[in-house]
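Table S2 (text version). Query chain:
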Amino acid sequence: MRKLTNQELRVTAEQRIKNKSQNSKVIYLILDNLRSVHNIGAIFRIADAVGVKKLYLCGICAHPPRIDLEKTACKTIPYVEWEYCENTIRLVKQLKSTNIKIIALEQTDESLDYKSLKYSGPMALVVGNEVDGVDQKVLDLCDQAIDIPMLGFANSLNVTTALGIVLYSIN
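Corresponding structure-token output:
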């Protein structure tokens, strides 16, 4: 086994970028008032890695241009379509009106295990604030909620970690 060189990785990255545009799954991400610029930067990296159609940064979310966000995003910002939206509720209503299924990654009394989520057309995954989660008014507009079963003492994972798990399970 031999580790790939940076030059080899750059060549394969060009091919991956071409393949990303051929991704048949249309997945949007909605970040509802995330506080951490580092989480947002890492989510740019995940969005790029799995071929997310568009990333929506809502409410108090930091957004480019910001040096600290760009550092954490590791040069992926130019490759991820993104938009800042002040109001998450307005955005969710707009997406729903175009038949995009809205799915919250949130622990609720009706959440399903994330492994049960099957891609069946355009969808938007909503993740919420690191302390308070997805706002209840946004949650009320969602078509479904999924969560990641927790076995230990902690009742949740970091938002970026959880989003990565879910995106790779459906992508």
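Notes on Table S2: The chain has a mean pLDDT of 93. The chain has one domain: 22-170.
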